[in-house]
Design goal:
There is one protein chain. The protein is of the alpha+beta class. It contains ten helices and seven strands.
């Protein structure tokens, strides 16, 4: 039990130390309080001034940040220990401290359409939407001048770099994989800025007008060829069915009569006064065929002298 308890304490201490290190600036000094004789003197003078001017000084000392905001405080130009303050009420010393509010809500922005030359030498225009948020307020203020502007510029260049390695067919069909690759690249690059990229979506892919016409003509020709093949297959199946029906009717003389009666029934249903009587071809054969006489003896030419 003692070993498990000690292990739990050590793991909690390691996690708290890791969280504390994340709240500090990457590459900052250990002396973040800026202690010294001048700093101590200014601090004491500021506290004395606040006490003398009470309660009017509370208007400048008490600040409030919302639930979705954090305040990054600078004391004599340096970051004090403890990281960002908030949400709620916090206290600052007006003479020696200043603060910056950071919004932690998710921000979305449109990446302007980028003219990209694809892998197969086709010019396309692609735009996207990026969703991100500030994950570490202290780092986002201290490590980059403008984290939001830098993230937007990086999103544009990343989109151009990724699309340059893809063909036009891959851009049109594999939008999800392109979005995931762009998100991982942006998230890795903006981690040192305190920015977390949550989602990237490809909005639209615009092709040149001539290419659109060529693709439309190709698709139309493909559909026409497929329609002709389907029509030919239908004719073939219909002819086979008619042949099988003719074979069945040939075996039974009553089947043809029943088919004739069925045809008359369908004609009479449409209120048609025309009645069709089938005429066997055998009756017409007597009029069309000619009797051939057997050849007679050849005529003999007699010459009388």
């Amino acid at each position: 039990m003692d070993s498990n308890h000690s292990f739990t304490k050590s793991s909690v201490a390691m996690h708290s130390a890791a969280d504390f290190d994340q709240n500090r600036i990457i590459g900052a000094d250990d002396n973040t309080d800026g202690t010294g004789f001048c700093a101590w003197l200014l601090h004491a003078f500021s506290i004395l001034l606040i006490v003398v001017t009470l309660p009017f000084s509370l208007v400048f000392c008490i600040k409030v940040v919302q639930e979705y905001e954090r305040a990054v405080i600078f004391r004599l130009g340096r970051l004090p220990l403890g990281g960002a303050k908030g949400p709620g009420i916090f206290f600052i010393i007006p003479c020696i401290e200043s603060y910056t509010k950071i919004d932690l809500r998710t921000v979305s922005f449109d990446v302007p359409p980028q003219e990209v030359l694809t892998k197969d030498s086709v010019t396309v225009s692609v735009d996207a939407v990026v969703y991100y948020r500030v994950s570490n307020p202290t780092v986002s203020v201290a490590n980059v001048e403008n984290a939001h502007h830098s993230t937007r510029l990086l999103a544009q260049t990343t989109l151009r770099n990724i699309l340059g390695t893809k063909s036009m067919a891959e851009i049109l069909s594999d939008r999800e994989s392109i979005s995931q690759g762009m998100q991982s690249t942006l998230d890795e690059a903006t981690d040192r800025w305190g920015i977390k990229v949550e989602r990237v979506e490809i909005k639209d892919v615009r092709l040149p007008v001539q290419l659109q016409r060529a693709m439309a003509a190709e698709a139309e020709a493909t559909r026409e060829a497929r329609a002709k093949v389907i029509a030919a297959e239908g004719e073939q199946k219909a002819s086979r069915a008619l042949k099988e029906a003719a074979d069945v009717m040939a075996t039974s003389s009553a089947a043809l009569q029943l088919r004739y009666l069925q045809t008359l029934s369908s004609i009479s249903a449409e209120k048609n006064s025309t009645i069709i009587f089938p005429l066997p071809i055998d009756l017409l054969s007597a009029f069309t065929s000619k009797k051939q006489l057997p050849p007679g003896p050849p005529e003999q030419n007699t010459n009388i002298f």
